[in-house]
TrEMBL record:
<keyword id="KW-0378">Hydrolase</keyword>
<dbReference type="InterPro" id="IPR002509">
    <property type="entry name" value="NODB_dom"/>
</dbReference>
<feature type="transmembrane region" description="Helical">
    <location>
        <begin position="12"/>
        <end position="33"/>
    </location>
</feature>
<feature type="domain" description="NodB homology">
    <location>
        <begin position="259"/>
        <end position="434"/>
    </location>
</feature>
<dbReference type="InterPro" id="IPR011330">
    <property type="entry name" value="Glyco_hydro/deAcase_b/a-brl"/>
</dbReference>
<dbReference type="GO" id="GO:0016020">
    <property type="term" value="C:membrane"/>
</dbReference>
<keyword id="KW-0812">Transmembrane</keyword>
<dbReference type="InterPro" id="IPR050248">
    <property type="entry name" value="Polysacc_deacetylase_ArnD"/>
</dbReference>
<keyword id="KW-0472">Membrane</keyword>
<protein>
    <submittedName>
        <fullName>Polysaccharide deacetylase family protein</fullName>
    </submittedName>
</protein>
<keyword id="KW-1133">Transmembrane helix</keyword>
<dbReference type="GO" id="GO:0016810">
    <property type="term" value="F:hydrolase activity, acting on carbon-nitrogen (but not peptide) bonds"/>
</dbReference>
<dbReference type="GO" id="GO:0046872">
    <property type="term" value="F:metal ion binding"/>
</dbReference>
<keyword id="KW-0479">Metal-binding</keyword>
<dbReference type="GO" id="GO:0005975">
    <property type="term" value="P:carbohydrate metabolic process"/>
</dbReference>
<dbReference type="InterPro" id="IPR054544">
    <property type="entry name" value="Pest_crys_Cry1Aa_dom-IV"/>
</dbReference>
<dbReference type="Pfam" id="PF01522">
    <property type="entry name" value="Polysacc_deac_1"/>
</dbReference>
Amino acid sequence: MKFISEFIKSDVGKILLSVLGMFLVLGVLYSAFYPSEEERLQAAQEDISILFEDQNNQVLRYDVTQEEIQQAETSVKKLPSDSRKELNTTVDEAQTQFEVLEVLSPVFAGNPLMDEVPLVREGVTPDLIAQTQSALPDEDSEYVAKANELLNQAPGKLKEMDALRSDIENFTSIETVTRSNLYEVIQLANELTDQAGHFTDQPYMVQAYDAYHLAMDNLVATIINGYSYGNYEQPTLDAIFANPVLSERLKGTPLNPSPQIALTFDDGPNMEYTPQILEILAENGVKATFFVYGAYVDDHPEMAGRIVEEGHIIANHSYSHPDFSQISDEEVIQEIEWTQESIVDATGVAPSLYRMPFGAGGPRVVSLLSDMTSIIWNVDSLDWHLQDAELIYQNVMANLSNDMLVLMHDTAQYTVDAVARFVPELIEQGYEFVTPTELDFQHRFFAE
């Protein structure tokens, strides 16, 4: 120990300690500031992943740059040799794919090596295709082989699209369409629509498709105008609706009216469930009709006011919900008048619609309340009976028609949950949400 102590105090010992200290400091600094092998591997993997559109690192990003590929290559070089091999292969494949795509770019948009349907650019010619093929790298790789295959197929695709462009030009040059030649014009439109579906996203077809869609818009206008003079013969109607483009553009017109639905809710307002119903309707941008108890309006006037403020119809459902078929004329009138007063006091609105409790009362009540309109229903959600959101949903969806007046109750969570499910689905199916009096269904009472 004495020897060690004396050595440390000597000049040589001091120098050695200084050197050791310096190496220790350098080691600490290296550990602190130079990334670990794990960190370098992660950085390299991230630099590689941004080159590609997919998680498997196969589809090169359409807008990748040479600088990004070089950055990935630099990151891989910082790794130990045993970690480089697989990543080097991926970077090399990215570089080859990049070079091939650069050569193909005058002919194809996107990534034709990976796209399911290669996209041919506007203005491509057979000469340009030949020039592009001669410029491909002279190497044995799957990407070069795929590029050659695409370029060999391109002239045939070009010929097909040129033929379609010619057909579209002939179609758009038709000057006069009348009821007498409408069937033949629609048949031609149907043939074009079938062909056009094969080249929907092709940049090469953009201008031709613009002309095609303009001609289809004009044809739709002609069809609608002609229909105003009388219905078409069945073969013409069949031809019109065999065309998906025409059928879609005629939705909501007299030839192809949208299915309609009126949502109605009885027995509110309810402070727990009516707000949830209102929120669902607002989220989906649809309106409904609320047939309210006068007594509940007196209890919750602010909720009655909210129904009106949010653009829904508030309607009369009696004051205390008696069976109108079991009470006198005077009592029926009193139930309705009391509720009218309650609604006016709460909302400032005097309803013009009413619904008989239980749908009971028949023509007697309709005659008594001739200055108002009775609303019944043709689809009972059976929420009051089923008391299960899934079953209510299934019942409504099983009774779909083009003219639906649906009875529900804003008094339970199961109805709220069912409405939240089927309203978006009906919107997706093209239903128009309307008021009860806008429907073709105009029955005002049930048979007694």
